[in-house]
Amino acid sequence: MASLHTNFLGIHSPNPYWLASAPPTDKAYNVLRAFEAGWGGVVWKTLGSQVKNVSSRYSSVDYGGQRVMGFNNIELISDRPLDINLREIREVVREFPDRAMIVSLMADNDRQSWHELIKKVEDTGAHGLELNFGCPHGMNERGMGSAVGQDPEIARMVVEWVMEVATIPVITKLTPNVHSVVPAGKACVEAGTNALSLINTIQSVTGVDLDTFVPNPNVGGQSAFGGYCGPAVKPIALKFLTTIAQNDVTRQVPVSGIGGISTWKDAAEFMLLGATSVQVCTAAMKHGFRIIEDLCEGLSNWMDEKGFATTANFIGRSVPTLTKWEELDINYHIVANIDQSKCIHCGLCYIACEDTSHQSIRLDYGNPYNTYTIKEEECVGCNLCKLMCPVTDCITMVEQRKAPEYVNWKDYQRLGMPLNDH
Amino acid sequence: MITNNRLSAEQYTLNFADIHPPFESHDSALVEASRCLFCYDAPCMKSCPTSINIPKFIKQISTENIKGSAKTILSSNIFGAGCGKVCPVEKLCEGACVYNFLEEPPIPIAKLQRYSTEKAIEDKWKLFERKQSNGKKVAIVGAGPAGLSCAHSLSREGVDVTIYEKENKGGGLMTFGIAAYKVTPEFCEDEVEYILSIGGIEVKYNQELGKDVTLEELTQQYDAVYLGIGVGLTRNLGIKGEELEGVVDAIDFIYNLRDKGYSYVPVGDKVAVIGLGMTAIDAATQAKRLGASEVTIVYRRTHAEMPCTQHEMDIALLDGCKIKWLSAPKKIHGHKGKVTSLECSVMELGEPDASGRRSPVETKETFTLDVDMVIKATGQTPFTKLVEENELENKSGKLVITQDGRTNVAKVFAGGDAVNGGKEVVDAVQAGKDGAKGILEFLGVVDVAVEPAYNKSVVSDAT
Fold it and tell me: Which residues of A touch B (CB under 8 A)?
């Protein structure tokens, strides 16, 4: 059976699943429950500047009758006294020495505050530090969190302060509230961070209450931009993760992937795009810590099926296949095929193609069931019908190359090949 | 022994409680609404005789636009709430739901339909504006589903409608002819009141055509007349003993149950029900629920030919009713003028008849059921005498109409059971719409907003 054991800069954990720095890792009670449930590690909720929290703090985006497709929060870093947090971290490390204990930090913006905080945290026996350069609500108004991560030079300076004293691995957590995470990531790596993690939450408004007219979450008739996370942000996280894996500087350090990971499949995808460990929060907040069982079992079964003995066998494997558009093979062509024996006659493929794509599906009226067939000569192979079809494998895309040779956009221009063939 | 008042008030309430309870909350409706795939050119919609835009109204439930949802339903079927309770959806919309292909339960369309429309009736949502009166006057005979549907469609267009109804309540067979555990008489009254709330429709109750008012008078006083007179009592069995005390008509039996209350209606200990249509099921199950100890349904064909749906038959079977297949009543025996038993012939299937079903042929074999009550539910007969007196063209009493709903008599239109011989409520509602469309065209009223019948206008043209 495949091993999920993870070695992240010498920080060992029985599986790659860490709970992200957030309310679930706020205190010993939660973390002990998480470890008992089987989580590989935690990133303890951010310690640092003294804060006060408000009520309410969370809001969500529901979709298709399901709760929490996306989630946001305006909770600040830990509002518990530092001493209590440090004592509890020490206790947990002692009780579960085989689990990864990373502590998230956000000190006031001066060298001395960072130095003092790091020394105190290292004294607990924690295995690593994560620098919170990403929190996009509240803390950023005070020049911390995402305000640091958004400015590569400030990020570089803080990492340098940290590296002056840190003796355990330092992971720097990046904010996605930028057009690219690479400049800040690069600055942090150059300043000596041992690893990166991403993404933190995305500044957001989840919605407006149509009765009170106040956006969510409502704090006494007002609201503030919150940090967005949950399944909805996964594609954005994967994109940012890939850019880190593709850059010559940032790819030198291991990455802990974060952003909407809810299932073992999500985790596998993050790892295929370069993450060594993954961090989870929203899914645990929705279902509790028990989800770790399937996260591990599913990943392990998939690894067995694929013949991967360890996670190192596939981390980053998909990175080279994500290329520039201009490298794509224009002669590669697929057309849709509808398996009539599987078709349930819902017409969703037809209306999608007819109204919004290339009118490539023929409709033969029936009562009550219509018949839908592909007009192969019209089909551009866009996938739309297949994506809308509610039946798995009813619509498949069949390869019909335009020509045998690989020709990309650059070749096309160079050779003056014909355009507008559709 | 045939007697009434067999059960306690609590038992009656329990036995006649709503067989398909509604959704308890928006959350529960949302679970099912969210499953709907929102099919294009949806099979469910095409399988609804009134062509309700089902994907649209379900989508509107999921977006919490309940008013919009109710209007979508009621625009096509003003009896949408009642039909949500009584339609045999397993052979209509839900039977056509694409989930059936996946061997998954279909979307509970009827239940979702009730969710929106019952709210509309409860909260008296004013979803339709009647156009200003255009001075045209139409008389409608019969305040059943066909008549009221026609009236509503006409009133929306500004026609002044007067309905002549022989009963003291509207709703027709919806109010008087359906099992109480599907739809209560009280609900039917609310629904009729809601339909009439558009205004411009006057109902004259206790006015029977041919008795209190004549067709000639109506054609003289009104610009057009619509006959939604339905059908009458069950046809006679034509066997010996039919006159005995204890032989009742299913229509009468159900009528009394709904009009006079459960405890009023007498029922036997051992009851035979003749026939296996929807009315037979309603009579059999309700006889059982009134306290009969044994109910046997006698049907002359087999399971393959039965007119009721499997779903309906299951209700009867779960109530403990028995079914005797390939059995035809031969003679009702009695003692001192009262039913004591029913003698039946054992049948076998012969050649297909006009309906395409193999017709039952008598064998020499017979059997006898000990019963003290026989309920006849072998299909209703048209009002042949009334129709012929008025020189209306008909086929064995069923009115003959043109495509736009006209009879052979000038200014006189017709639809519903009186024309088709007795189909579902939803068919009558569509017939009312069709009749209204024909009348509006006849009266020269422009801008007709009557929803078209999908199956006619779209599918037949396209195929």
Answer: 64-66, 343-348, 350-351, 363, 365-370, 390-391
